[in-house]
Amino acid sequence: MTALIIGLVLFLCTHSARIVAEDNRAQYIAHYGAAKWKLAYSIVSVIGLVLIVWGYAQTRYDPVYLWFPPVWTRHLAALLLLPAFILLVATYLPGTRMKSALGHPMSAGVKLWALAHLISNGTLADVLLFGSFLVWSIAAFASARKRDRAHGVVRADGALGRDALAVLIGAGVWFVFARYLHAWLFGVAPFG
Q: Major place of localization (predicted)?
């Protein structure tokens, strides 16, 4: 559990620099340069992610159950993950209305991902992992939207065809992940 907690602290603190320390981040970048900031950010993030994955995997050997979710919550989680995958694709696909409307579809997608997994999992490690990401994504989304308003960010409207493409790609990736990869990677079949 210790590795999971340390990993969450490293990963989420790094990704929270713009939420809680925007001025310090800007000063660091101004003093050391963007390349050194990105290098330090990446190294700490990768270390954090490795510790999260390793620590979470270790907790599966001796889980601490807080509750036992019914089987149908897996299906609900799988359904909630469909828009999460679509939002992830919309993050990187230029010209979508989703990105124009939300501004930060990845944060919205992470919220759905974390909520879906909180609904369908009942161990202490799940609450720590997915609860931390849910709280972080809510704060990150609110902070980014506030920053956009403060800087007067206006996004182009986007095209409906780009949204359709995001839905098709996102749904395809979701299907492959839910049907084949999730069980292989994590030992849990969402539709099994």
A: membrane
Q: Are 41 and 14 in contact (CB under 8 A)?
A: yes
- DSSP 3-state of 96: strand
* Residue labelled with tokens 């559990």: 1
CA dihedral 129, 65, 186, 120 (to 10 degrees): -80
Specify whether the CB–CB gap between 183 and 189 falls below 8 A. Answer: yes
Angle at 133 between CA 132 and CA 136, to 5 degrees: 85
- Take residue 54 and report the two structure tokens written for it: 């390793």
Cβ-contact 90, 115 below 8 angstroms: no
**Which position has the token pair 């996004």?**
155
60: buried, middle or exposed (CB in 10 Å: 19+, 13-18, 0-12)? exposed
pTM: 0.90
Give pLDDT, residue 192.
66
